[in-house]
Amino acid sequence: MLRQYELVERVLEYDPDADEAMLNRAYVYTVQKHGTQTRASGDPYFSHPVEVAGLMTDLKLDQETIATALLHDTVEDTLATIDDIEANFGTEVARLVDGVTKLSKIEQMPENERAAENLRKFLLAMSEDIRVLLVKLGDRLHNMRTLHFIKKPEKRQRIARETMDIYAPLAERVGMYEYMREMQLLAFEQIEPEAYATITNRLQQIRDEDGGQVDAIALDMKHALANAGLQVEVSGREKHPYSIWRKMAERHVSFEQVTDIMAFRVICDDVADCYRAMGVLHTTWQFLPGKFKDYISTPKTNGYRSLHTSLIYGKSMRVEVQIRTRDMHRTNEFGLAAHWAYKQGNRPDGAVGWLRDLIEIVDASHDAEELLEHTRMAIYQDRIFAFTPKGALFQLPKGATAVDFAFAVHTDLGAQTVGAKINGRHMPLRTQLNNGDVVEILKGKDAEPQMSWLGFVITGKARAAIRRAVRLKERGEVAEIGAKLYDEIVTRVPAKIGKKALRDALKRLEMDEPDDLFYAIGAAKITDRAVMEALMPGSTEGMADEDDEWLRSGKSLSIRGLTPGVGYDLAECCHPVPGDRIVGLRKPDKGVEVHAIDCHQLATGIDDDWLDLSWGKRSRGAVGRLRVTLYDRPGTLAEMAGIFAQNAVNVKSLEQTQLDHPFTTYEVDLEVQDLAHLTRILSALRASDSVAQAERA
């Protein structure tokens, strides 16, 4: 912990005109007010505000900010009041302390109030004075450094998650990357301890094994630049562990597949040298197309400026390089804080002008609902924040949908999703979310993830959970088909088969459970003959190859209760519906493809395993395709649509396939109950004066 004189000396080093007496008073005041209070670590509580003040001196902030850091917890945690602060330290310090105190109080609000107030939190921190936010970020950073002293793991997780979701992104938004990286690292250690340990251990192994490779590459770059007449500083490091983990998650790759683990920084004297250095590096080593970004000519919205490029060092090693001036480097690491240094007379109002509209929304909003409805923050360009109705905040990639949100809340909630309300309105699940949306997920007890969701979800967690659920369901339904096939195979074995024979067969086939065998049969991974031999060795001797066909049994296999697209696939060529005579083509690892018996494409499956299928009693629902030729005159398309409506059928798709005046031909996909339903629709179409021809496609 910094002693009183050490803290004051730090400030006087960069601001000799600072009010030394005020700083001393603030130090003594916080020590006296916090008294015997202690932290979870056992240290005196006042050590925390002193350390936060130390962080502010690292940023070379003015004396009012240092005093605010020293006093920021006195109103919240002691008997001190804002009036006391104003009387002792002036109006400006009192206003700053009040701002930080408001932020802390918001964190303690009931859950049902936090949705709107979390939005306010972002804005209040930066409303009148950005220094409020700087102190709050310093406060959170020091709390994260001591988070491991908190005994309750659930509390550590909550604080870490809030840091990862709110404070680290906010630090990034104001350009304080040094704070952002450390917050992310400390939060990552708590939220994903196993991943943290694995990645940090692998990075340590790389350090132990590379034999100073990072330093060698940095030296090579420096020599190449020096030979071109450029005097620069070059430093190298492994990438941030959280950055590596996020890249692994986003790309669905292992640690070994992350190729750009090393990053190098080149510090130049001026902007012209930055571009010259980039040219030297690109002509010395091959650069990766599409990886060059010029943030000098086009800075990020938070003021970040640098050249980014990726090179191939040696034969295959990818390295990232950032090129910037010294001034850019300080601004890039500490963002807006770098502009608030003690000596700068003109504050960077332009740099925070993007806050003005947001502050007006806060001032104009009368209640939480209005604030949530109208506040669509532009603070985060590459991510959005959405809330549950109870106020829990979730960070999602830009473009995330209601289904992504459901899985972010909990995997079970995502799996049971049937609908969503966004800001109180029912919306399609594929609806992309905006910043500040309140999302209520509607769930069904018997609901399950749909394969179609993979067409619009964008988060790795949602995609992985959907795929896993679909695979499990598919395996179960394929095994159900296999179980029915197994019962038929058993009838062809020349003896009565019991449970013992099945257990012995599993051992011979090196399978653990009957379901493994049933799945292998349903997926055509094993032949009927192999199953018979496993059940009774020698039972297939003298059997002709054609006797291996299940179709010869004369029985049909019911697909009732199985899910199209999971347990079987309805062929796109003939679009069979319940009531059609059907057969199945069973292909290894592709499941069963169901065709109408008169489908022309069946001739191409002559070498596949054919199954005699039936819909089963009371099977309902399929998509039938019609080819309808209308007279090309006004109103005919509307009349066709009216016929569909009268017959209570939903149109899945409508495509114009031919225009041959005076006729227009359409292909229409309809959700019908069965063959009788489809036949009634065809009859109604053929009876219409608007229809020249109607038939199944």
From TrEMBL:
* Catalysis performed (reactions): GTP + ATP = guanosine 3'-diphosphate 5'-triphosphate + AMP
Assigned EC number: 2.7.6.5
Q: Which residues form the TGS domain?
A: 382-443
The protein's matches in PROSITE patterns, at most eight in alphabetical order, are given as: ACT (PS51671), HD (PS51831), TGS (PS51880)
Instruction: Give residue ranges for domain ACT.
Output: 625-697
Q: Sorted alphabetically, which InterPro entries does this protein's record hold?
A: ACT-like_dom_sf, ACT_dom, Beta-grasp_dom_sf, HD/PDEase_dom, HD_domain, NT_sf, RelA/Spo_fam, RelA/SpoT_AH_RIS
Q: Where is the HD domain?
A: 45-144
Q: Which SMART domains match?
A: HDc, RelA_SpoT
> Belongs to which family?
Belongs to the relA/spoT family.
The protein's job, in short, is: In eubacteria ppGpp (guanosine 3'-diphosphate 5'-diphosphate) is a mediator of the stringent response that coordinates a variety of cellular activities in response to changes in nutritional abundance.
Q: What is this protein called?
A: GTP pyrophosphokinase rsh
Source organism = Qipengyuania aurantiaca
